[in-house]
UniProtKB/TrEMBL annotation:
It comes from the Bacteria. This is LysR family transcriptional regulator. Residues 2-59 form the HTH lysR-type domain. Keywords: DNA-binding, Transcription, Transcription regulation. PANTHER family: TRANSCRIPTIONAL ACTIVATOR PROTEIN LYSR. Belongs to the LysR transcriptional regulatory family. InterPro entries: LysR_HTH_N, LysR_subst-bd, NocR_PBP2, WH-like_DNA-bd_sf, WH_DNA-bd_sf.
Length: 291
């Protein structure tokens, strides 16, 4: 069995061109290096240096062995570098599935922060339906998910991430646009653009208003676009709605309050990678920036 300490000293002699120089560089005595080289030669069964020279002149066998040692240590250096990358950045790639409302600004902002911290990342962002996000997270097809609550899924660790209160989107010249707050009772006779959720219907019916859902659109951007064309009002998520600054619409607080909840999802049964942990930290910073 080759003594690793002997290999280190052998490499030092080759690198510095002599035992005396190697000893000076390592701040040890030359006899220690001479003994280590002699013991290594005994372990190998062949001489490594030509004796009788002031500098370390390797034998042919010594040159061949030095080449093999250099390759071996180059591999070890590569492993050390890989270990540092894994320690600092995890595996170096992430798959994130995000609902549309957070995919255009909040998630990119978090990824920008992570990229500044760990350049050269490989991140895949997907924007499927909420049920698909839950399914992918449960099966391990994504590392992190941001989605509305769903029931019936196992294999997912879910924690609260963001809760906002719905707002009322109205055409800029609508009669209700000057109100500081729009109530469910105010919407009597106003055509509404539905998102397919029962929460708005329940709120208006509780106020004694029979809602008139003229149109339906799944995403906030589509509902706000219809509002901008004067086709009605809509109860929407304020986060994506506030990004639509070019539309002639106004956003007003809505009463009674309708919370819109987003959960942070991870595959259950396995800890997040270091890279996923850092992205979660930046997601928290991006979320706090909304307040």
């Amino acid at each position: 069995m080759i003594n690793p300490a002997h290999l280190d000293l052998f490499r030092a002699v080759i690198r510095h061109g002599g035992m005396t120089r190697a000893a000076a560089a390592l701040k040890i005595g030359q006899p220690q290096i001479s003994r280590a080289v002699a013991q290594l030669e005994a372990e190998l069964g062949f001489p490594l240096f030509v004796r009788g020279h002031g500098s370390a002149v390797p034998t042919l066998e010594g040159e061949a062995f030095a080449h093999e040692v250099a390759q071996t240590f180059a591999g070890l250096d590569h492993l050390q570098q890989a270990a540092r990358r894994i320690r600092d950045r995890g595996t170096g790639s992430l798959r994130v599935a995000c609902q549309p409302s957070l995919a255009s600004r909040l998630l990119p902002r978090a990824i920008r922060g992570l990229d500044a911290e760990c350049p050269g990342l490989r991140i895949a962002v997907h924007v499927p339906s909420p049920d698909t996000i839950w399914s992918w997270t449960a099966s391990g097809q994504c590392d992190l998910g941001l989605a509305r609550p769903r029931s019936g899924y196992t294999g997912v660790t879910a924690e609260p991430y963001l809760t906002t209160m719905a707002v009322c989107a109205l055409p800029r010249r609508h009669t209700l646009a000057d109100r500081r707050v729009v109530t469910a009772a105010d919407l009597a006779g106003v055509p509404l653009i539905s998102a397919g959720s029962s929460a708005v219907q329940a709120a208006t019916e509780a106020a004694g208003v029979v809602p008139h859902f003229a149109l339906m659109a799944e995403y906030t951007a589509a509902r706000c676009g219809l509002v901008a064309e004067g086709l009605g009002g809509a109860i929407v998520d304020p986060v994506p709605a506030r990004e639509l600054t070019g539309l002639p619409i106004v956003l007003r607080p809505f009463r009674p309050g309708i919370p819109i909840e987003t959960l942070l999802l991870r595959p259950a049964g396995r800890p997040p990678s270091r890279l996923a942990e850092r992205l979660i930290a930046h997601l928290m910073l991006a979320r706090d920036g909304l307040r």
